[in-house]
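call fold(seq) -> tokens
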Amino acid sequence: QLQLVESGGGLVQPGGSLRLSCAASGFSFAYYAIGWFRQAPGKEREGVSCISSGGRITDYSDSVKGRFTISRDNAKNTVYLEMNSLKPEDTAVYYCAASRIASMSPKSYDYWGQGTQVTVSS
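ret:
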């Protein structure tokens, strides 16, 4: 059974850091691109970052570029999102998703995790 499980969320002060993990099982992880998305209350789900199946191609939204870094370890079936210099506006539920094509659009993704809450507040 295909499964994506996010972890690493929590409460952090502005300027702090968190590392999110997305652990995959039940499918050929190495053949799938992975995207990170977030959704704040009352807002649409937005793309944060994505990484190609082999890890050579990455993309970031303008709002996180230079602060967030996506990476993957295909031997561990895991994708990471390193988040630095966090701001209150980064507060949201963060989701990872799998697709055959690396894209920043949620519509491109077939499989989704349950999400992990990130709260940036003093």
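The chain is about 0% helix and 50% strand.
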